[in-house]
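To fix ideas, we now present one chain and its tokenised fold:
***
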Amino acid sequence: MWGESEIYLVNVTVIIFMLLNMLDMGLRLKLHGAIEGLLNKRFVVLTLVWGYLACPALAYALTRVLPLERSYASGMILVAMAPGSTFLSAMVNKARGDLFCAAPFLLLTSVATVAYMPFAVPLLAKGLSVDAWTIGKPLLLLIAFPLMVGVAAQSVLPLVASRVAPFLSRAVKFLGFFLVTIVFSTEVYARGLLNSIGAYALVTQLLFYSMSSAASYWFSPGLKEGQKSVLSLGLSMRNLGAAFAPLLAIQHLDQEAMVMVTLAIPIQVLISSFAAHLFARRVLTVGTPG
């Protein structure tokens, strides 16, 4: 079992990570452009279908096919339910994708995740015995609230927001690295990581990210090249703050599920960076991302 000090440090780090991550997203989110982008009905429908039907279904199927322990499976399901990341725009820029679609994707998935997870988690994540309101509370307090604060600050004080956002972005990156370090450096957490590799956790995540990213790119009819890359990258990058939220809501911390969500931090960076590189090469070969 984890010591009380380790649990406390992890919980505090996760909470700060969640708050700053969503505040950073709100500061960067151009609300007018995001709302305007939501007029693209095909992009909205495909985002919802891939993000909240196909990806959770893929994760659920992988946890059933592979001999994954229940707690690791629960962590995988949580990760699958939360598409989008504050670093999406940077990856889309690297991929030479359509930056105009990044803002509506983040706005749509942020709202949809908060509304979706309280009802979907009890149904799909069988290892987490929690009700909808227990899950909804941390999502509202740690995801929706800081996002709204960031959007409001960016709308009222855009100059200040533009200056603060880079510092917040660095802080989020540092906290992500720090979280990976404390989870995987102590004896108990390191043992959990080694067990996760033996329990097919690493393989499951690699398959999930690779398959969801590739499938959403190739099977999104009607989208332009740059729009498909946004959708694909958005699905290969996860709102891990939202994935952590249900774990903070349960009475006893699920160690393996926490390891599974934390493991997603370096894996999504690896997969999304590789995907962005491929998309950029394709744009240079085929033509404009249009």
Observations:
- The longest helix spans residues 255-286.
